[in-house]
Write a structure and sequence with these properties.
about 500 residues; Aldehyde Dehydrogenase, Chain A, domain 1; Aldehyde Dehydrogenase, Chain A, domain 2; 2 domains; seven-stranded mixed sheet; six-stranded mixed sheet; globular; binds nicotinamide-adenine-dinucleotide
């Protein structure tokens, strides 16, 4: 039985132990409170009730975790690739076994709807399986013969790395960053978002129980400006894989400068979905709705700007408004719910402030725009039409169920509007004109583009953004390039002519 009541009963069972012991850090294989003994509360966005106390890690805890990761590194880097593969598959198996627990906890901690989090938990397992299978070949290189040398490249894990994750789909995103680091042979210190610590703790426990050696994966909870900052500044941490806001990425780059930190950034987006009048409008409508209102719109790849051709705009908007009115906003643990509450009050205030901004700038509020109820951070799915590219609602990442629609006349204008933002993460294109799809996708400034499709991930493809949306790509070898050092060794194949000085 998977109705709201049964999920609520299961939630109580899953939370009981966290309520008793709090959410501890995991350092060197040991569950420990923060060195300072301090804790903070994680609170559910559904009803603002406290969930559990969380270890308030700081510099000392990061230092202990970085030391544990450094000590564990040589053995983990040297372990047989096949053994590493087996452990990562064991982690994936355990994720599948505990997928329901993970999804229920994630919904309660973040407000994301169960229908999406149940899939996200299983995606976490797939991420581990994908990188598990690549582990044995992670060190492979190339043979590059030149006239007098045989050049041979190989890869070696960079060392201990810091992984810093946000609160939107935190479980899945953590697996997406940590699995390749482990497959490459790196050891990890993970600092999850302070708003969503539950599933990061479950994930670290799963890895520990699956036989990952102590110190290979360390978890330190805490605030970004203290624990997160200390991680980015630590000299034993060789690289930072970060997912979060563009502004935070820029801070991390500065913080990591003294220790010459290698950085990998997956940042914000203001992604366009461009609908031409020759498109399959029924499917385009489904995709437009899915890509902004799923995951509460708290999704880096959401298509938050609808660019719709003038000739079809009126009809498309009318159908959009009708469908928005039928979206089910409700308790995230109700399997029927499509949109849950936003993560917290600050974010809720930010999202609603964009309703004021849209009105002030002269756009038309065509749907939503208000709070639902007076408990929890529920907002109506919102649509602004009649916007233009200069407006704040067309330029800034709102990160909620909030769509801004702009009309365009022709392809040239559509492209100019699409590229007229600081971000460049994803783009979605709806048209049946083949040559236009080729031209447009080539000129569109985005790291990932889907043509006549919503966002469907294929793990071997490169994931990441351009402009203010990120630095670096993830997926297969792209991940290994970040977590590993490339080494070239040139062997002379004979007695080639050498320049002799002072001879
Ligand atoms: P955020 O930048 O506020 O926080 C992300 C993480 O960084 C948290 O763990 C936080 O504690 C930590 N942090 C904050 N300040 C820090 C500092 N000075 N030093 C080190 N760490 C620090 O982001 P958020 O609000 O949690 O997440 C939402 C953002 O993430 C959105 O902008 C979204 O687009 C982006 N995001 C991007 C992708 C992508 O793949 N491009 C995926 C998911 C989310």
């Amino acid at each position: 039985m998977t109705d709201l009541n049964s999920h609520l009963e299961k939630l109580e069972t899953h939370l009981a132990r966290f309520r008793q012991t709090g959410i501890m850090n995991l350092i060197g294989g040991q569950s420990v409170p923060a060195a300072s003994g301090e804790t903070f509360q994680t609170v559910s966005p559904v009803d603002e009730s406290p969930i559990a106390g969380v270890a308030m890690g700081d510099k000392d805890d990061i230092d202990a975790a970085a030391r544990a990761a450094r000590e564990a590194f040589p053995a983990w880097a040297a372990i047989d690739g096949a053994k590493r593969k087996k452990i990562l598959h064991d982690i994936a198996d355990a994720i599948v076994e505990r997928a329901e627990e993970i999804a229920i906890c994630e919904c309660w901690d973040t407000g994301q709807a169960y229908r999406f989090m149940s899939k996200a938990a299983l995606r976490g397992a797939e991420n581990f399986r994908f990188f598990a299978d690549l582990a044995p070949s992670a060190r492979d290189g190339k043979s590059l013969p030149s006239p007098h040398h045989l050049n041979v490249t190989s890869r070696a894990p960079i060392g201990s790395v810091g992984v810093i994750t946000p609160w939107n789909t935190p479980f899945m995103l953590s697996t997406w960053k940590i699995a390749p680091a482990l497959a490459a042979g790196c050891t990890v210190v993970h600092k999850p978002a302070e708003f969503s610590p539950l599933t990061a703790r479950i994930l670290a426990e799963i890895a520990h129980d699956a036989g990952l050696p102590d110190g290979v994966w360390n978890l330190v909870n805490g605030l970004g400006e203290t624990a997160g900052k200390a991680l980015t500044e630590h000299r034993d941490i060789k690289a930072i894989a970060f997912v979060g806001e563009s502004r935070t990425g820029s801070m991390i780059m500065k913080q990591g400068a003294d220790t010459l930190k290698r950085v990998h950034f997956e940042l914000g987006g203001k992604n366009p979905v461009v609908v031409f009048d020759d498109a399959d409008l029924e499917r385009a409508l489904d995709a437009v709705i899915f890509m902004i209102y799923s995951l509460n719109g708290e999704r880096c790849t959401s298509s938050s700007r609808l660019l719709v051709q003038e000739t079809i705009a009126e009809e498309f908007h009318a159908r959009l408004v009708e469908r928005i009115g039928k979206l089910k906003v409700g308790h995230p643990l109700d399997p029927a719910t499509e949109i849950g509450p936003l993560i917290d009050k600050t974010h809720f205030d930010k999202v609603l402030s964009y309703v004021d901004a849209g009105r002030q700038d002269g756009a038309t509020l065509a749907a939503g725009g208000a709070r639902i109820g007076n408990k929890g951070w529920f907002v109506e799915p919102t649509l602004f039409t009649g916007a233009n590219s200069a407006m704040r609602i067309a330029q800034e990442e709102v990160f909620g169920p909030f769509l801004t629609s702009i009309t365009f006349k022709d392809e040239v204008e559509a492209l100019a509007i699409a590229n007229d933002v600081d971000y460049g993460l994803t783009g979605y294109l709806w048209t049946n004109d083949l040559t236009r799809t080729l031209r447009f996708s080539d000129a569109l400034e985005a790291g990932m583009i889907w043509v006549n499709s919503e966002n469907v991930r294929h793990l071997p493809t490169p994931f990441g953004g351009m402009k203010a949306s990120g630095i670096g790509r993830d997926g297969g070898d792209w991940s290994f390039e970040f977590y590993m050092e490339q080494k070239n060794i040139a062997f002379a194949t004979g007695q080639h002519k050498m320049t002799r000085l002072g001879a």
